[in-house]
Amino acid sequence: MAYFENVNKIQYEGAKSNNPFAFKFYNPEEKINGKTMEEFLRFGVAYWHTFTAGGTDPFGSATAIRNWDKYTGMDLAKARVEAAFEFFGKLGVPYFCFHDVDIAPEGDTLAESNKNQDTIVAMIKDYMKDSEVKLLWNTANNFTNPRFVHGAASSNNADVFAYAAAKVKKQLEIGKELGGENFVFWGGREGYESLLNTDLKLEQDNLGRFFQLAVDYAKEIGFDAQFLIEPKPKEPTTHQYDFDVATTIGFLRTYGLENDFKLNIEANHATLAGHTFEHELRWARINGMLGSVDANQGDPLLGWDTDEFPTDLYSTTLAMYEIIKNGGLGTGGLNFDAKIRRGSFEQDDLFHAHIAGMDAFAIGTKVANKLIEDKVFDSFVEERYASYTTGIGKDIVDGKATFTSLEDHALKIGEVTPNKSGRVESIKATINKYLVTSLAE
Ligand code: XLS
Ligand code: CA
Ligand code: CA
User: Fold this and answer.
1) Which residues of 120-132 are buried (b: 16+ CB within 10 A; e: fewer)?
2) Residue 278 has pLDDT above 80, yes or no
3) 66-75, 136-145, 255-264, 415-424: which has the minimum mean pLDDT?
4) Which of 178, 221, 329, 333 could form a disulfide with 42 if both were Cys (CB 3.0 to 4.6 A apart)?
5) Which of 266, 280, 297, 309 has most ligand 1 atoms within 8 Å of its beta carbon, as the pocket-test mutant?
6) pTM above 0.90, yes or no
7) Per-residue model confidence (pLDDT) at position 440
8) How far apart are CA 93 and CA 137, in angstroms?
9) Which ligand 1 atom lies nearest to the CA of residue 141?
C-alpha cells in the first residue's frame, strides 16, 4: 500500500519553480567543491518527528493526520516502516535516524521490548536492501519512560543504570546489524534538579563509566560507528550535564573519552545554551570534535526546544561555513531533528517541511562556499591578527615571550590605542550581498 499516493519523486526544478513539491535550490547532482550536494550534505530524516510523533504540545493532544495511524501496536510499527521507506525514496534522502522506541513499542518486559525491536529491525533491514537509504545513527531513548525519572546513567538507582546499559547494548547491536555510521547519546535526563538531594561527583563519574562501557562493548562486537554526544542545556532537567560543546569536551577529557567521541550539534540546543549555532560548530571544529549535525532551528521568541525546520538562510550559511571549513562531516550528516508545526497536520506538510530545510541548506552551502573561495572572512581576520606574525606577537605565538620580555616591550611602546575597527556592520553587509548574488551565478 502507498501512504503518500499523491506525491511523486521530488525533483529539482530550480528557483523559478512554484511547485511546492519540488526543490528550488537543492540539486542532488550539482557539484560544489568537487562533491555532489547529495554527497556533501548527507541529509537524514528523524524517524521520531516524521513518523512517530503526532503533534502534541504541553496543552494539546495530537493533531497530525497520518494514514498509518489506523493501525496499533506492532502493526502500526510495521506500517510506519513502510511509510518511512516510501517517504525516504520520494524525498531522495540518503539517511535516517531513530531511537529504539520510535521504531517499535516497548513490551511489558525488557526481553519483550527486545523482541519487538528484532522484528522491526529485520523488516528495516529488508527495506534497506531494496533502497539506497542508510542509517546515519540510532540511539536509545533513556528518558521517556518513568523509570528514568531520576536519570539513566546518572540515576541514583543502580538498577536504572543497568537497565539503561541494556538498552544501549541492544541499540549498539542493532546499529551494527544495520550498518549505522554513527551512534548518538543524548542524555535527556542526565542532569539534576536540585543539589540538595544530588551526589554530583558520583553522577558524573557514573556517566563517565557508562560511556566507557559503551565504547568497550562496541569494540567487543566490532561495531565501528563514530560515537557522538549531543549537548543540550536545560530541558528536561534544570542542570543538564552536557550543557554545551565546551562543557561536553571538558567532561570527555576528564574521563579520558575524547578520542572515542565527537559531538552531534543541534542548532536549537545551541541557542538554548545562549550561543549561536555557528559558535557551537566552531568550538567543536577547532577542537577536532565536529561529528554530525541536527539541522533545525529554534524560535527566538520562545524559550524552549521548538525543533523547527531550518529556513533561516543566515544561520544555514554560517553553519555550512563551519562545516566546509571542517572538510565536511566525515561519517556525520545533517539530520532534520525537526517537527512540523502543530497546525501543519497534513501529510503533505512533511514533504514541504523537508524540502524547505533541504533548500535552505543548499543555499547555505553555495553561499558559504563562495565566502570561503573569496576569502571574505579569512582575509579580514588574517589582517586583524597580523600583529601576531612578527615581532613581539610572533614571540608570543612561538612560546618565546616571558612576562619580563613582555614588560620590556610594554615599557617601550607607551600607551596602546585601539587602532583598528572590527567592521562588523560592513562584514554583515557583505554577507547579505553574497546571499543575494551567489545564487545568481
Ligand atoms: C532532544 C534531542 C533528541 C536527540 C536524540 O531534544 O534533540 O531528539 O537528538 O535523542
Ligand atoms: Ca537532536
Ligand atoms: Ca531538540
Assistant:
1) bbebbeebbeeee
2) yes
3) 415-424
4) 333
5) 266
6) yes
7) 72
8) 14
9) 10
pLDDT tens readout for residues 366-412: 999 999 999 999 999 999 999 999 999 999 999 999 999 999 999 99
Whether 142 is in the pocket of ligand 1, judged by its Cβ within 6 Å, is no
Q: Is the CB of 86 under 6 A from ligand 1?
A: no
Q: What is the pLDDT of residue 441?
A: 59
Those residues whose C-beta lies under 8 Å from the C-beta of residue 240, and which sit 6 or more positions away, are 187, 190, 191, 231, 232, 233, 234
CB of 305 closer than 6 angstroms to any ligand 1 atom:
yes
| CA-to-CA dists, residue 407 to 376, 390, 391, 397, angstroms | 35, 17, 14, 16
Residue-wise pLDDT tens digits, 203-259: 999 999 999 999 999 999 999 999 999 999 999 999 999 999 999 999 999 999 999
3, 82 Cβ separation under 8 angstroms: yes
Strand bridging mode 191-192 / 182-185: unpaired
Mean pLDDT of 312-319: 98
Residue pair 89/131 in contact (Cβ under 8 Å)? The answer is yes
Q: Which residues pair with 297 in a beta bridge?
A: 308
99 catalytic per annotation: yes
The grid cell for 60 is 494539546
User: Would the CB of 339 count as within 6 Å of ligand 1?
Assistant: no
* The three three-digit cell numbers of residue 41, written as one number: 550534505
**Mutation pick for ligand 1 pocket among 100, 101, 167, 230 (CB with most ligand atoms within 8 Å):** 230
Instruction: Summarize pLDDT for 96-154 with one digit per residue, the tens.
Output: 999 999 999 999 999 999 999 999 999 999 999 999 999 999 999 999 999 999 999 99
Has 359 been annotated as catalytic? no
Residue closest via CA to ligand 1's atom 8 equals 337
Q: How confident is the model at residue 295 (pLDDT cuts 50, 70, 90)?
A: very high
